[in-house]
Amino acid sequence: MTAGGAHQEAWLDEAAGRLVRPYTVSAGRTRPTTAMELLSWVVATGVRPRGRLEPDHDVALRLCGAATTVAEVAARMRLPAAVTKVVLSDLVAVGAVRTRPPSPAADPTDRTILERLLAGLQQRL
Amino acid sequence: MPAYNSDSDHLPHALKILIAGGFGVGKTTFITATSEITPLRTEELLTAAGTGVDDLAGVEAKTTTTVALDFGRITIDPATMLYLFGTPGQDRFWFLWDELCHGALGAVVLVDTRRLPDCFAAVDFFESRRMRFLVAVNEFDGAHRYEPHEVRQALGLRPEVPIVTCDARHQRSATVVLLTLVQTLLTHPARTHPIQAGNPT
Lengths: 125, 201
What we know:
The complex is a heterodimer.
Chain A: E1 10-13, E2 17-19, H1 22-28, E3 41-44, H2 55-63, E4 68-69, H3 70-77, H4 81-93, E5 97-100, H5 111-123
Antiparallel strand pairs in A: 1-2, 3-4, 3-5
Helix pairs in contact in A: 1-4, 2-4, 3-4
Chain B: E1 13-21, H1 27-34, E2 40-49, E3 62-77, E4 80-86, H2 98-101, E5 104-111, H3 120-128, E6 133-138, H4 148-155, E7 163-166, H5 171-187
Parallel strand pairs in B: 1-4, 1-5, 5-6, 6-7
Antiparallel strand pairs in B: 2-3, 3-4
Helix pairs in contact in B: 1-5
């Protein structure tokens, strides 16, 4: 994440709006266009957005190469989660990333999930 | 959420367990011992419910605060990831943040018997939210050892809340704590939440 290009105004397309440095984004846009939680999944779709990505968007997109969570992308980019969500939602808007909310199966009464969890933890002993 | 249904077969389940307790009780140590990744930190904007503020508009007063969260991850199987989130220990108002609890399976309340009152807030909070939890006494070197029943009595824990001892530095010991929590969730299914007042906000 070099400073190069950081101050240029790169437009991805009309719909996506301007992709700017996340710290600038955080000052201007605090709400992502796509609702995300810390444990929402994000994964690159393989669609390469037209135009040049801002450096942080590029980094975020690469971090989504394998399915991961918003929390992990934020931590690895060393950005606040709120800023990361804005960056990721930009990528969702141009079709480069898809996202899914935390599983509704994360229900403390779901025995299948809990039994799977139990088996997985036992293997780690 | 229909927009995401087509993806549901391809993305794993992300499960969440909270690791709570007072400052310095070993939450991040516990996460380090169990996580397959070096614990990560992010900052999240959390909304705190107003306390003792009478809002004339009849709307709950809310404040938003940036809070540092440490977390780790355990791959259970290719389709299931378990995330462990440490509650922010430095901020004595962490328990106001409902968002931390949202979607969590349950919680581990770590206890240092030298500073037992530090965990009261966590115990009260999870009880009031009907969040399933257990108490894990982290046995620090040199700390006076109390019997679990003594700690249970001191905390006024309900009988169904398990209490275990652990060494948060050791993977096996910390993993057993997580296992015990999951076993508890399985053997004592959550009671249905009565819709009633008394859910503090």
